[in-house]
Design brief:
Distance between the termini: 62 Å
CATH class of one domain: Mainly Beta
Oligomer: single chain
């Protein structure tokens, strides 16, 4: 009985108890739906430093007549310095599971504020989804 009174009091005051959900108040950065959507974006910046240096502006993944998937992503250097990054595409099935069909890392060089299109094509048919991964170049042995 006391628990019921406490629950009613909390409900009247707008306090949630034991719901296990995320707050949707003004302090919440994004909703659960937005967080899930962000985790499925087709461009994944693998290095934290790139979040302020790179932007992806338009993405396209289309299955060609031969059944292979062709991916195009516009990437832009947001800085006023030259930027060297590496990119690759990981192709996935309809459930979002990697199929092992991924491209080699490709070096991309950007002038200050320059945009360019990164393109790749799958090696096998049946791809439905993709993720383009972008990272800072790795030193040999890492």
């Amino acid at each position: 009985m006391k628990l019921m009174h406490i629950a009613l009091l909390c409900a009247a005051l707008g306090i949630g108890i034991g719901c296990g959900g995320r707050s949707s108040g003004p302090g919440t950065a994004r909703s659960e739906k937005e967080a899930i959507t962000a985790s499925k974006l087709p461009v994944n910046l693998l290095d934290k430093k790139l979040e302020s240096r790179m932007a992806s502006e338009m993405q396209s993944g289309e299955v060609r007549e031969d059944g292979l998937m062709e991916v195009s992503v516009n990437l832009r250097n947001r800085t006023y310095k030259n930027l060297h990054v590496q990119a690759r595409t990981v192709f996935k099935d309809s459930r979002g599971i990697s199929t092992g069909d991924e491209t080699q890392w490709k070096d991309l060089y950007f002038s200050p504020q320059q945009a360019q299109t990164y393109r790749s094509v799958s090696k096998t048919t049946g791809m439905d989804l993709y993720t383009v991964e972008v990272r800072l170049p790795r030193k040999p042995g890492k």
